[in-house]
């Protein structure tokens, strides 16, 4: 079955960096776009970044432009979210998601009804 497992979260000071990983299994990884979302306490889930199957990055939330990047290693079935210059407002649970019929380049992205989600990894930004 499809599995998405996030890792790499933790506590980091403002201005610090973290790299999150999303390890995938149970589907043809290199034919799927993969998205990262985050949800802070009391806030709605928001789309952060998305990477298409052909390795083109898409950004959604303006607040992460220039600070977060997304990449994928198809040989390892893994997508990475590199976060730098972290701010307290970046603190959230970060989730990766995929769906065979949802694409980063779609004008309506982000979608919130992906078929498959990981369990999330907590990122805390605090001094």
Description:
The protein has strands at residues 3-7, 10-12, 18-25, 34-39, 46-51, 57-59, 68-73, 78-83, 92-98, 116-117, 121-125. It has 127 residues and is mostly beta strands. Strands 2, 4, 5, 6, 9, 10 and 11 form a 7-stranded mixed sheet that branches. It has a 4-stranded antiparallel sheet with strand order 1-3-8-7, with no helix packed on it. It is globular. The termini are far apart. The mean pLDDT is 95.
Give a quick summary of the entry:
The chain is mainly β and 127 residues long.
Topology pattern, helix = H, strand = E: EEEEEEEEEEE
- Percent of residues in helices comes to under 10%
Strand elements, count:
11
Question: Distance between termini?
Answer: 40 Å
The major β-sheet equals:
7 strands, mixed
What is the assembly state of the chains in this entry?
A: single chain
From the spread of the alpha carbons, the general shape counts as globular
Structural class: mainly beta
Ranges where pLDDT stays below 50 over 5 or more residues in a row are none
